[in-house]
Amino acid sequence: MASVCGGSLALMDAGVPVNATAAGVAIGLITRYDSTKNNIEDYRILTDLLGIEDYMGDMDFKIAGTKKGVTALQADVKIPGLPLKIVMEAIQKAAEAKSKIIGLMHECIDKPRTEKKENWPVYEKLEVEAHKRTRLLGVGGINLKKIVCRNRCSDECLLSVSQIDDTTFQIFAPSQFAMDEAQEIINKLLSTEKTPELEFGGIYNATIVELRDIGVMVAHPSALGLEVGQDLQIKYFGRDPVSGLMRLSRKVLQGAPR
């Protein structure tokens, strides 16, 4: 039943708002049993029994709860039956022991912790615009791997970054220090290039920096007489909702061909 006590203490130490402290105790029973008369001639009740007492004894009765009541109980009985007197006595001793254990627990901590501990694990959500995902991930996820490996402890990765949807990531860190370190790296990755503030439907002057086959659907870019470094006028139509890339058009400004 130590797991009940330890679990309750751990929850309060972690700041979990539990309603009350819970503790557990195991009650054992040793009898001198007359099998011919199906009668218990003598008995002793053991409080907080050990393994050998459980093995040699005639009952293993576990009870857990708060000071106000019982939350769980379980019993293994190895003799044909128990008189109500022994059952009531076992419950009484269990209640007394449970209250004493809770008192000892309260000497350590008596309510959920409210102040934040430095070594508490933390998690945060990170919103990343679609066109910045590649900067965060890197080729083959190399950037995320670097962030995780900076917080590696032995062979276990304590920090993790997982993607929830197209623009939302979740960061889990073993401490606030590790979280701050990871966020500093992420901020550097996402701020390496300044994103221009463009107005939907606005017309801007742009400079060609690269020509690709996918730049024109019907003819090769060279057929239009375009070259790197050339200035031209384009219209901005926001970003693609899937890829996050800018949607720019030069054709809409040229009008219909005559």
Automatic annotation (TrEMBL):
Which organism is this protein's natural source? Rhamnusium bicolor
Can you list the GO cellular component terms from the UniProt entry?
cytosol; mitochondrion
Q: What is this protein called?
A: Uncharacterized protein
Top-level lineage group: Eukaryota
The alphabetized list of GO BP terms reads: mitochondrial mRNA catabolic process; mitochondrial RNA 3'-end processing
InterPro entries tied to this protein: ExoRNase_PH_dom2_sf, KH_dom_type_1_sf, PNPase, PNPase/RNase_PH_dom_sf
CDD domains attached to this UniProt entry = KH-I_PNPT1 (cd09033)
| A GO term for molecular function | polyribonucleotide nucleotidyltransferase activity
